[in-house]
Specification:
heterodimer, A: alpha+beta, eight-stranded mixed beta sheet, B: alpha/beta, two-stranded antiparallel sheet, 7 helices, 28% helix
Chain lengths: 591, 249
């Protein structure tokens, strides 16, 4: 038995009942895509994930990437697995056919990516960043750059990276110092970049870095940043990797988790200057990078789901097998029979199912934007993508901290022992609230650009839609209690929105003070909304037959979510109501 | 050369098998199903023969309800060219399956039929042998290696005493053992292409086969739970216990 098995039934439920994938595909003219095909894709990805990638997860943790003579040497076994991954065509899933892609919807890619990240998150970061590089080049690259780089990135024969952070420019990209000097048909890049995920390895014969740097005439701040393609190997006349470019990994970070993923310090232009090619227009690099980042942010949110699922499967197995109770007749029973262990398992399960629903519904909004029938619909769906992206990134990854911690807790003392592997998921999960923009950055994005900037319109639309679900729950017999719980959470959401919109101008510190609580409130509310919709669909399916065990469990899980997780919105609202007062009251010295 | 390869839909090997409460059968309701692992090896063997330029066409056949089209599609994604589903409400017993396959063979005229040596659900290990008898074709069961030598098929078989190599005149029947090959994973582009490959549905009536049961399933029970073992102090104690307690020697 594999120690990770993709929970395909829940994925198919969300795709079928909440996303309504078949209807969307039919309307969008994607006639080749249907539930049967998606099931076949998920099944095969699930096999590769369980059988090839999952067993390498522990290897990556204990034998992480090392820096050797040739550069970064990845974990033993990773190159072979990557070869199989590429040979099976998985990197090409969502890319356009023009570049050798399969042109499948983003939501299908997201459902498949959940598998890779559950099976082996450290490994899956490599194709995830390649996907980001593909997005940036496909949207902003010149035809020439696209022709040179996209086909091999799409096939996975080359991998991509994202080079933003510098020692003095983390969340504040305005401080970027890396330089780009025009030199004939290209630029010479110099500078140091840190925290570059999969910045080097030996799995492929080229690595394509996307690097933010400043041109000599660049204005100060974020409006003076440009994006460049800087490959590890320059291409020869036939487009094959030839001369070594002046770009190397000079050291690797020692980290709390994801040891299988090399986190590189990259040095560009130590000698003659690294050859780079401008992507998009000069000084517009940040906009290009945001294309990658929006994708990456939803992907990191998805990682929160994936690692939680892996931790849950392990904790569930342990709880079923660990005998720690004695019945009156002297026989022993497993800890899964203890109410508090059940509470923890259900909390994990309910969190995960809400996360999966939100991750896939948000991913489908990207498809609905791309295939919108008219500009108004396009703008509406893009608005929803913009709104949900920080919630998916922030809330899913914060919840993953709790879920993976519960996974350790269920193991008791054995959870603190590395050999069980429960602690690994907890350590691996810890980066998720940090990279691709911390929770604080996501929350600022949500309260600022996504709420205050449009006077709360995007949020208002979402709240109205949740209101419709409350009404449907009220009119469906068995859901009175859930209707009340979701209704109260919805009221909390409306109140939080009002407090922010009405208070932000008078108190400059308000938005930043309440932002994370605001994000978490909307996370729990969205989760509750989708779990309620799941319950409505499960009830309807039960009435027409269907998989009883699964559907009944879905109803109980949705009820648990309403009873135990949704009330957190009230505590969060109370904290939001308190505003910035105490947060800003101490002087820096009083801390 | 044309190859017919058989694929059976069985309970996924990752699923913990449960017996129905009334002991009438294994509980298959809403359980994950997959291609029988020995059939995967059969498909892989056929695909390798095609890749080597020996086979020109691979036809994948399955017997069962329409759900088994899923496994035919998997075979198509792995490299089979077209599929045939023989539509039956339930899974017939081995002899009926063999008769249905014999009828397909008569229509398709393949040079080689490759089957898994057994399926992991019933573990009967009968269909290949029965098909060979019905067709009166040479058979090589439990194959661990295959090679085509001057019009004859050379098959290495795993037998109790070691390995046996047979030379078969074609057309012939081969059943696959675990070590014949390591099946590949279907690639994403091939999963997409499999949707467009032809899949034909035939009925037993069209094939002139009557679904008749020669055996009856009386009861299914879960295996007895394993008891804890004991440690013995010496070989003589072990021998003594094997004689007096286990009564196996």
């Amino acid at each position: 038995m594999s120690d990770y098995v993709h929970p395909y039934r829940d994925t198919e439920f969300v795709l079928g009942e909440l996303v309504e994938l078949e209807r969307f595909c039919a309307e969008a003219g994607l006639n080749d895509v249907n539930g049967e095909l998606v099931s076949a894709i998920l099944a095969e990805a699930g096999r590769l994930g369980s059988e090839v990638l999952a067993p390498l997860n522990a290897v990556g943790d204990t034998q992480g990437a090392r820096l050797g003579e040739r550069g970064v040497e990845e974990t033993p076994g990773f190159a072979g697995a990557y070869g199989q991954f590429v040979e099976s065509g998985w990197p090409s899933l969502t890319a356009a056919e023009a570049w050798g892609g399969q042109n499948l919807p983003n939501v299908v890619g997201t459902a498949v990516n959940e598998i890779w990240h559950s099976a082996n998150m450290a490994f899956a970061l490599c194709p995830m960043l390649t996907q980001g590089a593909i997005e940036a080049l496909a949207h902003h690259g010149s035809a020439e750059l696209q022709a040179a780089w996209l086909p091999k990135l799409v096939s996975g024969e080359w991998t991509g990276t994202m080079n933003l952070t510098e020692p003095d420019a983390g969340s504040d990209l305005a401080a970027i110092k890396a330089r780009a000097v025009p030199n004939g048909d290209h630029y010479l890049i110099s500078g140091q970049k840190i925290f570059i995920t999969w910045g080097d390895h030996q799995m492929t014969d080229n690595v394509v870095h996307l690097v933010l740097a400043r041109l000599p005439d660049a204005p100060a701040g974020v409006k003076g940043i440009s994006l460049f393609v800087v490959p590890k190997f320059l291409l020869d006349a036939q487009g094959r990797p030839g001369a070594r470019n002046d770009a190397q990994c000079v050291s690797l970070e020692h980290k709390l988790g994801i040891h299988g993923s090399p986190t590189c310090v990259m040095s560009f232009g130590e000698k003659e200057g690294a050859v780079g090619y401008l992507v998009g227009e000069p000084h517009k690099g940040l906009a290009c990078m945001f294309t990658m980042m929006n994708h990456a942010r939803q992907s990191v949110g998805l990682q929160g789901l994936s690692i939680s699922e892996r931790a849950y499967q392990q904790a569930r197995q342990y709880a079923r097998e660990r005998l720690q109770g004695t019945r009156k007749d002297g026989s022993r029973f497993p800890i899964i029979e203890f109410p508090d262990v059940r509470r923890m398992l259900l909390q994990m399960k309910a969190s995960i199912e809400a996360m999966r629903a939100l991750a896939l519904v948000a991913a489908a909004e990207v498809d609905r934007t791309a295939h919108a029938p008219d500009p108004a619909a396009c703008a509406r769906h893009q608005g929803r993508v913009d709104l949900l992206t920080p919630i998916v990134k922030g809330w899913l990854t914060e919840l993953a901290q709790e879920v993976t911690s519960l996974g350790v807790q269920i193991h008791g003392g054995m959870g603190f022992i590395e050999e069980t592997g429960a602690a690994r998921h907890y350590r691996d999960a810890r980066i998720l609230t940090i990279y691709e923009g911390t929770t604080g950055i996501q929350a600022l994005d949500l309260v600022g650009r996504k709420t205050l900037l449009n006077k709360g319109e995007l949020l208002g639309d979402l709240l109205d839609e949740i209101g419709e679900t409350v009404a449907r729950l009220e009119s469906a017999g068995p859901f009175a209690a859930q209707a009340r719980a979701l209704g109260e959470a919805l009221a909390a959401g409306r109140e939080a929105r009002r407090l922010l919109l009405e208070g932000a101008e008078a108190d400059a510190a308000l938005a930043g003070s309440v932002s994370v609580n605001f994000l978490m409130l909307f996370g729990y509310l969205c989760g509750g909304w989708l779990m309620a919709r799941s319950a409505l669909r499960a009830q309807a399916l039960l009435e027409t037959g269907g998989d009883r065990a699964f559907l009944e469990a879905k109803l109980v899980t949705a009820r648990f979510y309403c009873e135990q997780l949704l009330p957190r919105t009230q505590a969060l609202l109370a904290a939001i109501r308190a505003g910035s007062g105490s947060i800003m009251a101490l002087s820096d010295e009083q801390f | 050369m044309k190859i017919l390869v058989t694929v059976k839909r069985v309970i996924d090997y990752n699923v913990k098998v449960r017996v129905k409460a009334d002991q009438s059968d294994v509980d298959l309701a809403n359980v994950k199903m997959a291609m029988n692992p020995f059939c995967e090896i059969a498909v892989e063997a056929a695909v390798r023969l095609k890749e080597a330029g020996i086979a020109t066409e691979i036809v994948a056949v399955s017997v069962g309800p329409s759900a088994c089209q899923e496994q035919i599609r998997t075979a198509l994604a792995l490299g089979a060219d077209r599929g045939i589903q023989i539509d039956t409400a339930e899974l017939p017993e081995s002899l009926v399956v063999a008769k249905l396959l014999a009828a397909v063979v008569a229509a398709e005229q393949p040079d080689l039929v490759i089957l898994g040596k057994q399926s992991i659900d019933a573990d009967n290990n009968q269909t290949g042998q029965m098909l060979a008898a019905l067709l009166d074709w040479p058979q090589a069961t439990f194959a661990s290696a295959l090679a085509l030598q001057e019009g004859c098929l050379e098959v290495t078989r795993e037998i109790d005493g070691g390995l046996q190599t047979l030379s078969l005149a074609l057309p012939a029947i081969v059943t696959t053992d675990l070590r014949l090959n390591e099946p590949r994973y279907a690639s994403l582009p091939n999963i997409m292409k499999a949707k467009k490959k032809p899949l034909e549905v035939r009925t037993p009536a069209e094939l002139g086969v009557v679904l008749k049961a020669h055996t009856r399933l009386l009861k299914v029970e879960a295996p007895a739970e394993r008891q804890g073992g004991i440690k013995v102090g010496s070989v003589s104690e072990l021998v003594e216990k094997l004689k007096s307690e286990a009564k196996v020697i």
